[in-house]
Specification:
Layout: E1 2-8, H1 11-22, E2 29-37, E3 43-51, H2 53-59, H3 64-88, H4 90-105, H5 110-117, H6 129-143, E4 155-160, H7 167-181, E5 188-192, H8 200-210, E6 214-216, H9 221-230, E7 236-240, H10 249-261, E8 267-274, H11 279-288, E9 294-300, H12 309-318, E10 322-326, E11 335-337, H13 340-352
Parallel strand pairs: 4-7, 4-8, 5-6, 5-7, 8-9, 9-10
Antiparallel strand pairs: 1-3, 2-3, 10-11
The structure holds guanosine-5'-diphosphate and magnesium ion.
């Protein structure tokens, strides 16, 4: 079977594209459907179908014989390229392999590394492990993005992410930061959408009382809209949500409903992820939230690990900017606006050590 993915503004249109291409074939199978945020931030629906190899070839106007010939020609040219490479740059490939292995062992992804290395293979840099590493560090530097703090317009900021990652703590830190730690005091209000966990409201409410912050807990989408309207004078509204594990569809759907049901305000969503998480886990969480347009990542528990390769791999691979780093449990001190240097320095140290 051959898998093929179709993209369109809606799942229906994406499926129509697949049917248009393979409709005359009987064994079109729908494998997956999901919505993803495109690079421009717009939502795109993605549908993956499976068709038999012969249908696939027929759909692109190739019968099996021509395909075989093409494959042979491709093999031949690949062999020639390999022979060429073997003649001149066997040692340089060794250095490349070493550098890739080292960075891979620190959490970076092989695919990503090889993609970065492709343009310089065969150059003198590729023959020197040290040069290669500094080249790759620069690539990481370029790939990492930071979303600068911007309070110049009124904002509603929602935290989403798994349970225990530090969403509520981050809301409290940000509330303190915005209301009295910057050059200007901003008017901050809090909204709790975590109606699942007993005590979720109280956890934040104690803090809200100390800082004299408005704190609401709407029970429905309509009420959420009304609360946002009522709080429209506030500079920043911070929204805390229930922790959602990848297996928790019910909560996810409710959070999405809250988010999509609101028409009166733009809400920026921040995915809160732990620096201690493994690449696959972060990716699973990210995919899980693919129905939501994520504006930035807030990285917590930066103090709990020296190993930041998985985090870097995830952020660069998904082109997701970081907005804040949380570096401990203390509220409000342990929070910094995201800083590329800090992440890179830690990574460089790890490579040296
Ligand atoms: N070491 C460390 N602990 C943190 C950090 N952020 C949050 N925590 C702790 O993680 C635990 C869960 O935090 P909480 O905000 O309730 O997570 P939530 O379930 O996502 O709301 C608490 O014990 C926090 O003190 C951090 O940056 N570093
Ligand atoms: Mg919480």
């Amino acid at each position: 079977m051959v898998e093929e993915t179709f993209e369109a503004p809606t799942p229906k249109e994406a499926f129509a594209l697949a049917k248009e291409k393979y409709g005359r074939f009987s064994d079109l199978q729908l494998l997956r459907a999901r919505q993803i945020a495109g690079r421009d931030g717009k939502l795109v629906a993605e549908i993956t179908v499976a068709v038999s190899e012969s249908d696939y070839l027929a759909s692109i106007g190739i019968d099996e014989e021509t395909e075989l010939m093409d494959e042979l020609a491709e093999l031949r040219s690949r062999l020639e390229r390999m022979r060429e490479a073997a003649g001149i740059s066997v040692p340089s490939l060794e250095a490349t392999e070493k550098a890739v292995k080292l960075l891979e062992s620190k959490g970076l992804r092989r695919d990503w590394l090889l993609e970065r290395l492709e343009p310089i293979l065969g150059s003198p840099t590729a023959g020197d492990e040290k040069l290669l590493l500094s080249y790759l560090l620069e690539e990481i530097d370029e790939g990492l993005r930071v979303l600068p703090e911007d309070l110049s317009r009124r904002r509603v900021m929602m935290m989403v992410g798994p349970t225990g990652v530090g969403k509520t703590t981050t809301v409290a830190k940000l509330a303190a930061r915005y209301s009295y730690m910057l050059e200007r005091d901003y008017r901050v209000a809090l909204i709790n959408l975590d109606t699942w966990r007993a005590g979720a409201y109280e956890q934040l409410d104690n803090f809200a009382k100390i800082l004299h912050l408005e704190h609401r807990q709407p029970e429905s989408v309509e009420e959420f809209s009304q609360v946002l309207d009522a709080l429209s004078d506030y500079d920043v509204i911070l929204v805390d949500t229930a922790g959602i594990s990848p297996y928790d569809t019910e909560r996810l759907i409710q959070t999405i409903e809250f988010l999509k049901g609101v028409q009166n305000r733009e809400i920026s969503t921040n995915l809160v992820i732990s620096a201690t998480a493994k690449y696959e886990d972060i990716e699973e969480i990210y995919d899980h939230f693919s129905f939501i347009n994520i504006e930035s990542a807030i990285v917590t528990k930066f103090d709990e690990t020296r190993r930041v390769g998985d985090l870097i791999a995830f952020l660069t691979q998904k082109h997701l900017p970081v907005s804040y780093l949380s570096t401990g449990q203390r509220v409000p001190e342990d929070l910094l606006p995201a800083d590329k240097e800090k992440i890179l320095e830690q990574f460089a140290e790890e490579i040296d050590g």
